[in-house]
Design goal:
The protein is 16% helix and 29% strand. With 421 residues, it is of the alpha/beta class. The structure holds ligand LQZAQKY5 and molybdate ion.
Length: 421
């Protein structure tokens, strides 16, 4: 008689995983090697931005009051005394009746209190004089020192993801090198005697291994460095030796398949032989109920036993392995974002467990809408094509109806600090 496993809640399973996160060490990398990394230091503004008052336009730096009576009929004429480009500092200060020709980004010359754009002046005498036919207000068109950020401001806290925008900020403050957390190396092993490599032709009884390739990209998306060790046949001793061998080369290991209660589901035996502590082996969710997570107390490494069924494997990764990888890399926003959405179709399946339905969410007329994609079965692979969210349908109901309000976990969102169902 096979042991009956006792499911724990998804929330409980997530906290068990989070209580076993092993934070990666810090490293210093060059700014262009920090893409998609996670900051291991706070970033403060060590100077004002812009660092000086400057011109946002190509034009002329003038004293605004000189134009107070200017009009179409009565233009004011100013003498151009100098020309400066971005990077230059004017030698002269602007006096009454004078102007300095200035290019975008150049420092505002002393004496000037407004910039007038090139397009609205009339140049005369080979550019030695300009005519202005309207009143220019004091402080018009000045990009002020510190208007972007002031010296001393905390701009980014450690644990922030390095995005292109973050890199612009790092460069602004002279971070040629930046402290980030090392990427965890995540080992991947697919188990199952039925598995063929992607390049092999189909033969009766066999299927191609899709999970490994899916997980490789999920690991990358989560910020980890995938290391794929290939496929293992359903043989206890070989699988045990295979798993044991790769453990020294990885920070965490993901296997797929072999976690259920079948005769050839050897992962539970392998965990036992390794002396691992099983954190859970059944979760109150569909798909992915057999997701198993074990922990090696000696090395602090975690073992994710994801289901072999493609959709279960996908969901198990997104709920548990993805947040673990992000947290081990120090990322604050480690969990999937969620939005409240309106269900676009009836979903009549009764729900004993929480269901995570592959869905497509869209934002229309100020509201999120969530549409299930494909068949909601754990062995289905094609429903993963269009899914950009996992719609959460809490268990214990007779199903859901079009128009019901549901939560949807965004697969491509920015992430959230809290796990929220
Ligand atoms: N008596 C019971 N049987 C099953 C239970 C149960 O509670 N009692 N749970 C079912 C559920 S739910 C799931 S999900 C599966 C999970 O099984 P495993 O995680 O042990 O996975 P396998 O048995 O190895 O494979 C399941 C399925 O997925 C295919 N597979 C496996 N690996 C891959 C891969 N890398 N790429 C693509 N497809 C893969 C495999 O051929 C099987 O069809 O167990 C139920 N049974
Ligand atoms: O674990 Mo299975 O994925 O519930 O369908």
């Amino acid at each position: 008689m096979v042991e009956r496993r006792k499911p724990i809640s998804v929330q409980e399973a997530v906290s068990k995983v989070m209580n076993h996160v092993h934070l990666m060490p810090e490293e210093i990398v060059s700014i262009d090697d920090s893409d998609d990394g996670v900051l291991a230091e706070d970033i403060y503004a060590d100077h004002d931005v812009p660092p000086f008052n400057r011109s946002p336009y190509d034009g002329f730096a003038i004293i605004a009051e000189d134009t107070s009576h200017a009009s179409r009929e009565n233009p004011v004429t100013l003498e151009v005394i100098e020309e400066i480009g971005a990077g230059d500092v004017a030698q002269n200060s602007v006096g009454h009746g004078q102007a300095i020709r200035i290019m975008t980004g150049a420092a505002l010359p002393k004496g000037a209190n407004a910039i007038v754009m090139l397009e609205i002046v009339h140049e005369k005498n080979d550019g030695k004089k300009i005519e202005i036919k309207r009143h220019i207000k004091k402080f018009d068109n000045i990009s002020w020192q510190g208007e972007d950020t002031e010296k001393g401001a905390l701009l980014l806290e450690k644990g922030h993801h390095v995005t292109p925008g973050v890199k612009a900020v790092l460069a602004t403050f002279g971070y040629a090198k930046v402290k980030v957390y090392k990427q965890p190396v995540i080992g991947i092993i697919a188990t199952g005697s039925e598995l063929l490599n992607v390049s092999e032709p189909l033969v009766p009884g066999k299927i191609r291994n899709s999970n490994a390739h899916m997980i490789i990209s999920q690991v990358k998306q989560a910020g980890g460095m995938p290391k794929y060790f290939g496929q293992l046949k359903d043989d206890l001793e070989q699988s045990f030796q295979g798993v044991k061998k790769v453990l020294s080369e990885v920070d965490a290991l993901i296997t797929t398949g072999g976690v259920s209660v079948g005769d050839f589901d050897y992962l539970p035996d392998i965990y036992q032989k390794l002396g691992a502590e099983v954190l859970f082996n059944k979760v109150g969710m569909r798909p992915g109920s057999v997701t198993t997570v074990a922990y090696l107390p000696d090395s602090g490494k975690i073992l994710f036993g994801l289901s072999g069924n493609p959709s279960s494997c996908f969901v198990g990764f997104e709920l548990f392995a993805g947040p673990y990888i992000k947290a081990s890399q120090g990322l604050n926003n480690k969990f999937l974002d969620n939005v409240e959405a309106t269900l676009t179709h009836d979903f009549p399946k009764p729900n004993p467990f929480n269901r995570f339905v592959r869905s497509r969410v869209t934002f229309e007329n100020g509201y999120w809408h969530s549409q299930p994609v494909g068949l909601d079965k754990s062995n289905i692979v094609t429903s993963l094509i269009g899914a950009n969210a996992l719609m959460v349908l809490p268990g214990g109901t007779r199903g859901y109806q079009k128009g019901d309000k549901v939560k949807a976990l965004l697969l491509n969102g920015e992430g959230s600090e809290q796990f929220c169902l």
